[in-house]
Every structure is written in C-alpha cells, then in structure tokens.
Amino acid sequence: MHRFFWVFSVVVLLSACNDDRMIAGEMLSLKGGWNKEQPVVFTIPELDSVQPYNLFLQVRNSNDYPFNNLFLIVSMEFPHGKTVTDTLEYRMSHPTGEWMGSGIGSIKEHKLWYKEGVTFPETGEYLLRIEHALRNNGEVEGVSQLKGITDIGYSIEPAGQ
Which residues pair with 12 in a beta bridge? Predict the structure, then answer.
C-alpha cells in the first residue's frame, strides 16, 4: 500500500509540473559547472510573426551555487543580422540564504522573466545566446567555472494569458 501511495504521489507531482502554456522551450544540462567562455546557445523554432510572446529563462541550481544572485548576458540574434543584448541580474536566494525557486530537495528551478510581449517579425532562425557574468567581490576577472548551475534553458509562452 505504501508503494502505491508513493508511485501515485510521484505521478501527480510530475503531471502538475507540465506547463500547458509553453509553446517552445529547451533545457541544457551543464556537467561540472558553467564555463565563462562557453555560452549556451539555443535555436528558437519559427513562430507566428504577429503573435506576442513572453520569454523566460529557466535555471536550475544546486546547493553548490556559491552566490545569492545571478548575472547573465543574454543576446537575441535575429535572422537578418540584428542582435539585441541585455545584461540581467536575478536574485536566487532570500536574505536568509534559503533558495528561491521551486523543487524538492537540493535542486531548485527558477523561471526568470526575460522579455515580455515580444514578436518575431523576421522569418528564419533566431538564436538565443546566454552566458554568465559573475565575479567575486573585489575581483576584476569573472568567475571562469561557475559551480552549482546544473541546467539552463528558455521557454516561450503566448503573451496575455
């Protein structure tokens, strides 16, 4: 009977995590940390050119992550050569040190706002390039191998829902 209860609980939890609003997205697992010289690059599938979308960054971290925030440089490369680059900062933990995000155990998942009401007017391939920009206090050089970020990704949802 206990075994049935646990199997049932896991099935319910997994089905609750399914986001029906997401129309595109991808996650990449980072093995052994995130190298500063290796940006994560995603190809965004062709989407309706008139429909506005909300874009999110998906980040999973473990207890090995040594910071309470996360600095990212995110670039959207358009099919005809235009590039829009943003430097973003996200809080990853509460002032008490407790991780923000969702999840059970030592891995927490963060759904972070990237852009709101975006359209994709050009036909062709859009690239989303994500790199971290963390550095230790008082140091000029950035952290070369960022520990504790286990996965990075993106998701796209229709705006206004």
Answer: none
3-state secondary structure of 38: coil
Burial 116-149 (b: 16+ CB within 10 A, else e): eebebeeeeebebebbbebeeeeeeeebeebbbb
For residues 64 and 108, what is the distance between their CA atoms, to the nearest angstrom? 11
d(CA 151, CA 127): 18
Alpha-carbon dihedral sign for residues 123, 45, 114, 140: negative
pTM: 0.81
Largest CA distance in the chain: 60
Lookup result for tokens 């995000």 = 101
pLDDT at 75 over 60: yes
What's the confidence (pLDDT) of residue 86? Answer: 96
Tokens of 37: 């010289």
The pLDDT of 97-119, averaged and rounded, is 92
Q: What pLDDT is attached to residue 9?
A: 38
What does the domain layout of the chain look like in residue ranges?
A: 23-158
DSSP string, 113-149: EEEEEE---S-S-EEEEEEE----TT-SSPPSEE-SE
Q: Write the pLDDT tens digit of every residue in 39-71.
A: 999 999 999 999 999 999 999 999 999 989 999
Please tell us whether the domain made up of 23-158 is placed in CATH 2.60.120. yes
